[in-house]
Amino acid sequence: MTRPPRLSAWFLRMSVAPQDRDVVLGDLHEEFGTRAATGGVAAARRWYRRQVRRSIGPNLRRRIERRDRRGALVGARPFTGVVQDVRRAVRALRATPSFTVVALAVLALGIGATTAIYSVVDGVALRGLPYPEDGQLMLLSEPSLVSGKGSQASAPEYHDWRAEQTTFDDLAASRGAGSFVTRDVHGAESLRAWAVSASLFPLLKSVPALGRTFTKEDEVPGQDRVAILSDEFWRRHFAADPSVVGRPLAFEAGVWTIVGVMPASFMYPAALSKPMDLWVPYAPQPSDFIRGKLAARNLGVIGRRKRGVSIERARADIERITASLRQQTPTWFQSRGVAVTTLQDAIVGNVKAWMLMLLGAVGFVLLIACVNVANLLLARATTRARDAAVRSALGASRWRIVRGLLAESLVLSVAGTAIGVALAVWGVHILRTSLPPNLPRLSEVAVNVRVLVAAAAMAVAVAFGVTPVWQTSSAAVGTSLRESGRSGGAGAARGRARSILLAAEVALAVVLLVGAGLFVSSFARLLRIDLGFEVSNVLSVDLSPRQRATDADFARLGTTVGPGVEAVRRLPGVAWVALVSGTPPLVLGDDRAAITLPGKPPFDAPDDLADEKLITADYFQVLRVPTLRGRTFTDRDSLPGAPQVVLLNDVAAARYFPGTDPIGVSVLISGVTGAATVVGVVHSVRLQGPEGELRPEVYTPLDWQHFRGNPILTLVLRTTTDAGSTGPAVRAAIHSTAPDLPAPVQTYDELFGTLVAQRRFNMIVLALFGILAVAIAGVGIYGVMTYLVEQRTQEIGVRMALGAEPSRVVGMVLARAMGMMAIGLVLGLSAGWLLARFVGSFLFKGDPHDPIVYASAGGVLVIAGLLAALVPARRASRVDPVVALRAQ
């Protein structure tokens, strides 16, 4: 049997008066059946819906207009009069400006802080990658077996993985493309370029907006001078000219041909805080696929899993290939493993945990704000209890009274959210400037539609959460009417509710204060770590040729380094100058070498490998590293034909020569031809910052005219004045002898700041949350104590009339405040003790149960609470007994 549309029939049934339903519905259903039989079911359904739309409006209006003899609506729908409730709420809030301002300020701070932090967490950690089916994308890497870190791979592994794997649609490789400097009438500009394999764009399922992507022919050395532009670079340099494809693009290193332009939505790598300007082909030389000293691990290798292939199966496939390769060349794999993880986890895995921790912390701030406003509304509702009781006695339903309270809470929460979002926009700008500069996807942090939807949800949740609905029960309003404002059972119940809310507010504030204290003390411990060298007044200048450099570039560099160093040495304010080849201190890298002693097997276990540095004579003077035994290098040690010498740090001396003196002993260093004699022992250095371990280090003299091993070359210098102000002069001196080198200049203070930026940010944010929690809790304590003083004015007047001293009255009020706070302190300290184990992994070598931190947190809140209660306490001590007794 054909039936009319169920939803339309339900709406009609609800809108028609009960006594008319059978007649109206019967006639409509009979006509529906006739039309379905003659004109078809679809036409009949359309007719039925039109009839329902025409009948619902008049029926609803008639039902709304039906009133009983008291003027109350009869049969009105639940949301009738919402607009009137909102208007009444706005008038009520305008009538009490002090309450409204305090409530709005508390909500705006809580919601604003939550929205700002959620913007950061959403942009960095929660949002998916900007590629179709991004969950299928995987990162293949070779992490260090020592540190477990490392997200890159070498060309030989990429070549073999791609050839032998069976679980991926394809693999793609990429790396930094080095220096691409273009010059125009406005001067020189260094572009951000990335070298990618031709398989990358199909793997990411990304197509260009103009032109084409790379092909296999573009990967052939000599045929690789083609480029794909980013949308932003295309618009900035070519004014979005659609005929740009095929044009030449001149750089200092040569001319590239533009073959395509990517759409504005495309970004790769996705983790960079600043997007790329262009992409060029990754065109490796055949020698790059040979496992040897020169095969660097500098490739980012990604793959797209085949449909139906699990992560575990893909990982097992790559591990199988790597195990076979390890048997063929075990030395090459002695310090490296293999890892396969999702690209999303590889990008945000290291930051997601502490991002979610910050989101949880700001959630405590929002809870404190909600509890505070709920307490304020409860106190406000107490003063308006008689009004609610009168309305109930005149026939207003409980739903109507509750709806008024909800409207008032909703107006407060919506207004507070609007102000909070405005604060969040400003706060996100501040956060972006203070976040770690190497944070992935930093450019995507913004107050966007997703964040606004979350803020709107918070507004609704807060509106329902802070409304004291329970006090609108029939018993409550009846008691309020009988008491007529006198303190009694209902007042005592509301007083207990306020005390409970205050205790909860204090407990939440204590938890936040404990967390802030733990992070502050953790960061203080981090700064006290001895690095083994002095960071202040030290400059670092990268002199390495671009990654596409040829042997001629290195030969030219060998002739220009000497004059450049002399030019820098002659600058005013420069005390010491040195060169280091290999990864310098505070720069993440891995330059390990195996050490062999005469008559003993090599120290080639991962923990025994030494960090190798090639340095000039003044290196230890620049960094002020103490010499413990023997001597350091002289200029003669780096001359061709000079005896080979080596320096060890104290960790290496203890590891390789336990209980003996290494001075004068010959050692073999992997990658170095011939034995070198140990001439000195220097103090160990934490090469990777305060969180890095002290490891064995070996130093050999650097002959910059004949490079050996790692092509990374860095100039380090110590200044007698501020290092940052000397940077431009240093760069100008280097460009006077080597104008084609980018020569970026950084102070070691900046390098150190980058390493500790994440911990500093966590510490600052948690400290601000703690201060905000104390301020909001103080407002709550002040509000509750003010109300209590007003409620007990007559009692205080009697006490004063009977001879009570003002100081005793102050003590009584403060004691009451401390009594309510004590419960919150106990609960908060207990909760903080239990929750501390969850933040222990974010602390630097600290005790998450440090009693000093807990005592300090409790003390700070006690002082804040006493100060907040002191004002109403002093007001109570000035009560005039005559006025109070007259009010009786």
In short:
Helix content is 51%, strand content 14%.
Please name the defining characteristics of this protein.
888 residues; 14% strand; twelve-stranded mixed β-sheet; 25 helices; 25 strands; single chain; alpha+beta
Report on the structure:
- The chain is 51% helix and 14% strand.
- It is an alpha+beta fold.
- The protein has four domains: 6-65; 143-337, no CATH class; 350-527 and 757-887, no CATH class; 544-742, no CATH class.
- Strands 14, 15, 16, 17, 18, 19, 20, 21, 22, 23, 24 and 25 form a twelve-stranded mixed β-sheet that branches. Strands 1, 2, 3, 6, 7, 8, 9, 10, 11, 12 and 13 form an eleven-stranded mixed β-sheet that branches. It has a two-stranded antiparallel ribbon with strand order 4-5.
- Helix 21 (757-791) packs parallel to helix 24.
- It is globular and about 110 Å long.
- 39% of the residues are buried.
Task: Set down the secondary structure blueprint.
Elements: H1 6-15, H2 21-39, H3 41-65, H4 82-95, H5 97-126, E1 137-141, E2 153-154, H6 155-164, E3 168-176, E4 180-184, E5 187-191, E6 193-196, H7 200-203, E7 210-211, E8 226-229, H8 231-238, E9 248-251, E10 254-261, E11 278-281, E12 297-305, H9 311-328, E13 339-342, H10 343-383, H11 385-393, H12 398-434, H13 449-466, H14 474-483, H15 489-527, E14 538-542, H16 551-569, E15 574-581, E16 592-593, E17 595-596, E18 610-615, H17 619-623, E19 627-630, E20 645-649, H18 650-656, E21 666-669, E22 676-682, E23 697-701, E24 713-719, H19 723-735, E25 745-747, H20 748-755, H21 757-791, H22 793-801, H23 806-839, H24 851-877, H25 881-887
Parallel strand pairs: 6-11, 8-10, 18-23, 20-22
Antiparallel strand pairs: 1-12, 1-13, 2-12, 3-6, 3-12, 4-5, 7-10, 8-11, 9-10, 14-24, 14-25, 15-18, 15-24, 16-18, 17-21, 19-22, 20-23, 21-22
